[in-house]
Amino acid sequence: MMDSRECPCGQNRVRDEAAQWFVRLQAPVMGVDERQRFNGWLDEHPNHRDEIQLLQGIWSATDLLPRERLRALCEPPAKRPARRPLLRYAVAAGLLAMAVGLGLFSGLGSSTDYSAEFATALGERRHVALPDGSVIDLNSRSRVRIQYAHHQRRVELAEGEALFRVEHDADRPFTVDAGNGQVTVTGTRFDVRRDVDKTRVAVEQGSVKVQGRDVSQARFVSLTAGLGTQIDAQGKVATPYAIDADALTAWRNGKLVFTNASLNEVAEEVSRYRAKPLRVGSAAVGNLRLTSVFRSDNPEALLKALPNILPVAIRTLEDGSQEIIAR
Q1: 9, 61, 132, 220 — which has fewest CB within 10 A?
Q2: Are residue 119 and residue 228 in the same domain, yes or no?
């Protein structure tokens, strides 16, 4: 049976919805509830992400036009009332057509400089499309700085976690700087998570090269699909190991997937989605293992379920944080 979104009328509806969401995304502030509704809409169908990515690419192309020309194009036509509330969408489409017609925007081959910074709040996820066709999905409490130049594409993951889908460009390697190390690719799909004491890299498709800040370890460590590694606080890269890419990137769909994870690992992960941290009361409790799936937007459900799964209890401390203790 054909999905209604695949017929012309359904596709038009999706494009209208995408345009409405895109306009909201340009607002200086977007509430967590509205961001969660947007993420839910994104996850409903692959077409939704495609349309948002298209609009973000269109909007990025406007950076290539002179400011005076851009301002003139954004002026409403005289004696012609707006027929739809989506003026930005129409203007963006016109700008893209003009940019392509003038040869100013050439997709993957563009050598135009580009810089931007994106961040997410507690419980927020964000989908970012870059001018070269690459895409970044940001997890909760994450921040990236992007700098494109003629011969390089550089991203700094200042904090948090991001999933990268990088468009191939052999002439401009894509580098992710994560403090104690960096990841270099020409085109692939991989996840980078930066914590206080370590950085984790996991490859879903393609291959990457990982290098730490440890001067005694000068060589790159190569990762292919299904492999991951960690960079410790001293900048040393661990030997590659097998990973479950689907589990590690389940946060994109609002899920926390634990497969034989220690409660130390569970507490660290859950703390990313709570205003107050979750702690473990003892080494013995921290070594207990958990296999389960929970929603990242409702970490309290995990705390309620945990005593029914393992011999533990949840204690609330004076500062409002909570601690897992033996029962």
Answers
A1: 9
A2: yes
Report the range of poorest mean pLDDT among 53-62, 146-155, 158-167.
53-62
Pull the structure tokens for residue 255. 């899920």
Cα 61 to Cα 74: distance, rounded to the nearest angstrom: 14
What is the residue whose two structure tokens read 């001293």?
Answer: 234
Contact indicator for 71, 91 with CB cutoff of 8 Å: no
Give the separation between CA 105 and CA 192, rounded to whole angstroms.
29
DSSP-H helix ranges across 144-288: 245-248, 263-271, 283-286
pLDDT in tens, 73-102: 555 555 544 444 444 455 455 544 444 443
Sign of the torsion angle spanned by Cα atoms 228, 231, 232, 233: negative
User: pLDDT at position 100, please?
Assistant: 42
- Look at the chain and report how many structural domains it folds into: 3
CATH of the domain at 286: 3.55.50.30
Percent of the chain with pLDDT over 70: 76
The two three-digit tokens of residue 171, written as one number: 């002439």
Domain residues for 322? 254-326
Out of 185, 211, 245, a domain closes at 245
Contact status, residue 17 vs residue 49, Cβ threshold 8 Å:
no
Residue 243 pairs with which residues in a beta bridge? none
Cβ neighbours for 178, distance < 8 A, ≥ 6 positions apart:
156, 157, 192, 194, 199, 231
Q: Determine which helix (DSSP H) or strand (DSSP E) holds 89, and give its type and residue range.
A: helix 87-101
From residue 32, alpha-carbon distances to 36, 120, 137, 229, 254 in Å are 6, 9, 16, 32, 14
Find all residues with CB under 8 Å of 140, minimum gap 6, and list them.
Answer: 120, 121, 122, 123, 124, 125, 160, 251, 272, 273, 296
Q: Which of helix, strand or coil describes residue 198?
A: strand
